[in-house]
Write a structure and sequence with these properties.
heterodimer; A: 125 residues; alpha+beta; 3-stranded antiparallel beta sheet; two-stranded antiparallel ribbon; 4 helices; 5 strands; globular; B: 865 residues; 10-stranded mixed beta sheet; 6-stranded mixed barrel
Chain lengths: 125, 865
Amino acid sequence: MPSYVGRRGIGYKTVSKEKFDLLQGTLDMLILKVVALGPIHGYAIAQRIRQISQQALQVQQGSLYPALHRLEKRGWLDAAWRESDNGRMARFYRLSAKGRKQLSREETDWQRLTTAIALILRTSE
Amino acid sequence: MNPFRFFLPKRRLNREFDRELGFHFEELVEANLAKGMAPEEARRQASVDFGGREQMTERLRETHTIPVIETAMANLRFAFRLMRKNPAFSAAIIFTLALGIGANSAVFSAIDAVLLRPLPFPHGDELMRLIQYKPKEKTLPMAVAPPRVEDWNRMNSTFQAISGYYTEDVSYQSGTLPEKVTRAWVAPRFLQVWGVAPQLGRDFTPEEEHVGGPSAVLISDRFWRTRLRNDSSVLGKSIKLDGASFVVIGVMPASFLFPDRDVDLWSPVAPDAPYANSREATWYTAIGRLKPGIKIEQAEADLATVQSRLGMQFPKTDAQLAVTVQPLKNEIVGDSGQSLWILFGSVTLLLLIACMNIAAMLLARNREREQEISIRFSLGASRRTIVGQLLTEILVLAVLGSIAGLTLAWAATKAFQTFTPNLPRVDEIALDWRIVIYSLGCALLVAFLCGIFPALRGTRGEIAGSLQRNSRTQVSSRSNGQWALVGVQVALAVTLLIGAGLLLRTMQELARVSPGFDPSHVLVFHISANWAETANMKGLTQRVNRDLDAVRELPGVEAAATSTGLPGVPGQWQVGIKVLEGQQDPNQKIVSDSRVVSKGYFDVTRIPMLQGKPCRDSVGVTNVVVNRSFANTYFGQESAIGHHLQMDATSFPLSGQIVGVVGDSREQGLNTEPMPTVYWCMSAPMPDPYFLARTKTSPMVAANTIRQAIHRVEPSRSVFAMSTLEEHLRDSFAEDRLRTILLTLFALTAVSLACLGLYGTLSYFVTTRRREVGLRLALGALPKQVASRFLFKGVSVAAIGCLCGLAIAAAAGRVLSGMLYGISRFDLLSFAGAVALVLCVAAVATLLPATRAARTDPMNVLREE
């Protein structure tokens, strides 16, 4: 059971147990990363992000779906109706070629950013 | 993915969102169930986790809207809000646009249809009218004798074909009652000249153009539709006309309306018929089609050679004749051209005024908004946003104005057709899209230029400067440009108003004229007849007298007569006259207007007898009556009575003895001075003269009684075109009246526009000087002084405009001089009246803002400081 709801929809459980918003754009990158593993529907994306982050990150539907549609509109994701594991029809998302490029760009940027932040944190210690 | 997903209708999109979110929700429920919750609890928990589904759908939809459209919608909403906030301004712009676009499109459409476009026939510019005349005698153009048309056609080298026609009214007897229809008798090659083929059937064959050949008739589309009910098997059927049968061989297209739109039938004249072989009986109107590339002068020279050869061959009849060639279009359009050009000139001035007005109003408004725009800039609005918004505002006004304008234009072209059925080619008037686009373009260009550029100027770079300019300490702003625009508007409006005034005064003068005859209580009508009746002139005269007597016997009729022309309706027949007694001075030619009238004419028209006796009945002419001008001009002190007159050298040589002298009357039109006139006494010079009856009561009340009386004596003839003489007189001035009404309308519109401009500009001027006025009032100025200062400003601009307008009108008055009657083109009353009217309206227009300025509360202004 989620203990809080982040303003931007993706919450991060901090040590101090206070609300914390992720950087804008991070959600997009996470979604692209999860979708890159194979066609997947919205519910599963939320589940997967939670599982992989070991319950640390929780995506709210209120953010997830607008983000998915935004990415689809930008041409980074393709969507199609398909039968899910339990036999119901679900909207499955798949990474497009453009999306794959975007993902690698964002990953590089992210790496660079975290490295930089880590360096700063280390020196100031 | 469906690339058109974003264009799916909203409902379908929503359904899809619902399905996707629904799936998620169900998954949540299932997960909760898997955790061991009770089904109800699982659902409740899922709803809590899921959050508001409606908001989510809304957010999804947002990601799918297109921002450009959203912005446009916002701009539109803003524009409409501004319109509601300032309805007077918006209405003024829309009204001005509508007038400019509407009036200009309508008048130019009329000009285009009547004057500019070629006649609606293939290569209409090649069509010519051929006119024979006698250069030595200065007689009016004469019709052409049928053999001469054949000679010209055979001998010329510049025409593809030459033909001729003649129209008369006949009685159509295949219906239940005899009805009058109009038939054109046409020479061979008639359709060849026009380049038009029947829509059904064929042209005449050579056999049908010979005496004794099969009788044939082509019928008009209208005749076919109204009288024969579109019968597609009409070809080969017979119709009965004046007792003879004619076989229908073809139906002409609906667009073929020649010689005029009333023609119902066309029949061939056999060139070898006895009645078509006199070189002296001139009754054809000759038309011809030039060979491609031939100029009119070449054709005239060619025909001159042909005619001189004919002159040698037939010295008696042809030696004195000359031929002139005129484009048929001029002939058809006639004098209407001048009226239309004047209307176009005035309507162009109106468009100019409208554009200036729009410019002045938008400039003023943008000045007012400069501060708002600067603030929005400094708050971070992009230039694009602001221009987009300003554009939208003007676009809304422009679109509304254009719609109103187009409606107006459409209504105006319809009005043209309703009010001027006599205008030539009026059926061809339709809104032409090129013209509409031209007018739209003019007005919209001005609107956009004036709406956008000043706004951009306010936004260019120096935001701070702009804010400063509009700061509170500002006392005045430059607005000379706007005042100049207003002044020019006033000048143009005064010019138009003076023109309208001159025409109005002309109408007034005409109404005051005493015509010399009494047009009230006179009924005018025709009785269908056939030109073949002229073969037996005695019989024809007896028939017409019989008809007249039948009318005279009626108790409601005071007098009845026939005449070749209507009194007061222009239609000259000027001929040379010889006095048979005494020695005539060969240098003094007697030229006089000639009218053929029957016994009773002077009783019907109430033209007073001055001397001698009125006309008597006779076959052929034996007695004539002259008017006072004729008697005074040609006989002086001597009594005119007893002299013998003879018409000089026409194909219709009348002669007779003068038996009486009557008073002068304006028979050639109310605006024409009486001229020497000879009345030849003859009841039936032609089969179809005008019948006139003076009735005791209202003429139209007697109409039916007269119709029945004639039906009793002439069961096979039809009575048609019944109307009053007064209506004919009105009709003969219909064009003048329409011209006057339109010009007056334009002038009044121009004046209102100019004063609207004056009002708007002064209001703006007052607004920008509010602080100055407040300070002055606070320092002890009297409200009266403040008001009179602004009043002076407005009225002085108007006065300068008036002066310029007077100068323009004095210079341009020549255009109208041919249309004036009884006044000079510098008519004091028109000039002074126009100026007085404009100054009065201008004073009222300036009074409102001026008093508003005077009522400024100084405390309010100072508090704002």
